[in-house]
Automatic annotation (TrEMBL):
Keywords for this protein: Membrane, Transmembrane, Transmembrane helix
Lineage of producing organism: Bacteria, Bacillati, Bacillota, Bacilli, Bacillales
Coiled coil: none
Keyword Transmembrane tagged: yes
Keyword Oxidoreductase included in the entry's annotation: no
Name the UniProt record assigns to this protein: PDZ domain-containing protein
Domain PDZ, residue spans: 287-365
Source organism of this protein record: Sporosarcina koreensis
SUPFAM superfamilies, per the entry: PDZ domain-like
Pfam families in alphabetical order: PDZ_6 (PF17820)
Length: 389
């Protein structure tokens, strides 16, 4: 029996990593890095981060929030139907292959899966597969409580990830202004994978894996199922800087997640509030995306060219520019005492003193400060700066 239990455990791990969601997410993350590098090289002839950065951070930034959410779901005893998981995963896969990650918020997947399952119940109640039938699902019962609360928890995680892990990897690119000049905009397109442990009622899993761990409450059996959950994010910052805009978006999404959880929890007394919680989450998430996009398109470029110096669009990691504490949007007025107004003048001025570089920088707040940095032979010959040109 112990060998069978071990075999079931190995099978579960294998099924997780062979899950289509996981495999598509892996390929999509590689694609994100590839297209980002192409965009950066088209604008600056150099990439900001390695092409596999998105793939390496697919799970690295999300595993801890996923663990916390899994403990909460299991501890509270929130159960979901297998059919809901299947539809949720199918919608997530479709969103990933379109690369349109503005609609890759889990609140959309959760709502579509919930209402899709309800529609399936109305149109195909006699359908059965391996003992599962949509007729067994009660959209006005436990599902009306558990799905909105779980979706709200996913929104909270989405907000956390946006707030803490998008600005640092925003990708600069050059775009034309209304006056025909070139200014810098910043695009963050990210994908995260959360290995979530969901609770499934019934003995569907035990029919496939007889020794799969189960527990019972009364006459009902429950099983744990590891499911890869996808969260996507895509936003262009043009009128604002990424480190200002993206944390605000993340905070708004987190607040929305808390609201969805609270309204969804009230479905314990009034199930229709669970439906309302999902609709509130979807509508407010859509409105947030639209409002941010409209504001960024209508506003001018935050990193627009200036006659007083050279505007920084990005800083290469571990470069002298990063050690100096330079940030995108700042303006370099003088280098080694020489006034600069374009990239060539910046490079020529740096060569005046190849061992010790002195900068006069205008910050985003308009304050002027002096900075200096010792340069070594292996350092980037332009301080590791991507500039508006």
């Amino acid at each position: 029996m112990s060998e069978q239990v071990l075999l079931d455990l190995v099978q579960a791990i294998a099924l997780f990593f062979l899950n289509p969601v996981w495999l598509v997410a892996l390929v999509a993350a590689v694609g994100l890095g590839y297209f980002r590098v192409k965009r950066e090289r088209r604008s600056f002839l150099v990439r900001l981060h390695p092409g596999l950065t998105e793939m390496k951070r697919l799970l690295a930034e999300s595993w801890l929030p996923a663990l916390i959410v899994s403990v909460l779901i299991s501890g509270i005893g929130l159960t979901v139907d297998v059919g809901w998981i299947v539809i949720f995963s199918a919608v997530a896969i479709f969103a990933m292959i379109t690369f349109y990650y503005q609609v890759a918020s889990p609140i959309y997947f959760a709502a579509i899966a919930f209402f899709g399952l309800y529609a399936f119940q109305q149109w195909g109640p006699d359908f059965t597969y391996s003992g599962w039938s949509p007729a067994d699902v009660d959209p006005f019962g436990d599902m009306a409580l558990t799905v909105p609360v779980i979706a709200g928890l996913f929104l909270i995680v989405e907000g956390f990830l946006i707030r803490h892990h998008t600005a640092a990897y925003a990708s600069p690119f050059l775009a034309k202004t209304n006056r025909g000049l070139r200014a810098a905009a910043f695009k963050s397109k990210r994908l995260w994978l959360l290995p979530i442990l969901l609770v499934i009622p019934g003995d569907l899993l035990s029919a496939i894996a007889p020794y799969w761990p189960q527990f019972t409450i009364g006459a009902t059996a429950f099983s744990f199922l590891p499911v890869p959950i996808i969260i996507g994010f895509s936003q262009v910052a043009r009128a604002s800087f990424p480190d200002v805009l993206f944390p605000k978006i993340g905070q708004a999404v987190t607040v929305l997640g808390v609201v969805v959880v609270i309204v969804g929890a009230l479905a314990w007394w009034m199930p229709i509030l669970g439906w309302a919680a999902l609709l509130i989450g979807v509508v407010c998430r859509v409105m947030l995306s639209i409002l941010v996009a409209v504001r960024e398109r209508k506003g001018g470029f935050a990193a627009a060219p200036q006659s007083t110096g050279v505007i920084i669009a990005g800083i290469l990691p571990d470069s002298p520019g990063e050690k100096l504490g330079l940030v995108p949007g700042e303006c370099i007025r003088k280098v080694n005492g020489i006034q600069v107004s374009n990239e060539k003048e910046l490079y020529d001025a740096i060569q005046v003193n190849a061992a010790h570089c002195r900068l006069q920088v205008i910050g985003r707040d308009g304050e002027v400060r002096l900075m200096q940095q010792v340069l070594y032979r292996h350092d980037h010959h332009r301080l590791g700066l991507l500039v508006v040109r």
